[in-house]
Amino acid sequence: MLKVKIINRGRQPLPTYATALSAGMDLRANIDEDITLQPMQRQLVPTGLYIALPEGYEAQIRPRSGLALKHGITVLNTPGTDYRGEIMVLLVNFSNEPFIVKDGERIAQMIVAKHEQVSFELTETLDETERGAGGYGHTGLK
Q1: In this structure, which of 12, 37, 40, 121 has its CB flanked by the most CB atoms within 10 Å?
Q2: 104 or 1, which is more confident?
Q3: Closest of 39, 12, 31 to residue 101, by C-alpha
Q4: What does pTM read for this prediction?
Q5: Which of 63, 55, 65, 53 is nearest to 112 (CA)?
Q6: Measured between alpha carbons, how far is residue 100 from residues 17, 70, 103, 138 in Å?
């Protein structure tokens, strides 16, 4: 298991995996007072957490599916690599109703994953795949 150094300057517990097979750990809001997100408003929400990721790893901050489905709340600008400041979650409200973020509420998931640096090799052609150049929506609805 990868060891990651963490500082907790907040009041919330450290992130944990909800189940044995979970990829993401829940991040909680660490706020002194409720934040009301109006429709189409975005807001940075502090977590009180600071991490030192080892070289070759990144933290991906992802939306929680329940918040997205039930309340239209999602996360913008999600990756972080060698950042050492407080983990802040950029929430946006895509619903038509105000949403209240409360202290300690689970607002996002954090996935720690390996990443690679690449060097590009200039070429004139690419290998063919089943998908090819098919982009967004190319497989249809059924």
Answers
A1: 37
A2: 104
A3: 31
A4: 0.86
A5: 53
A6: 24, 13, 10, 38
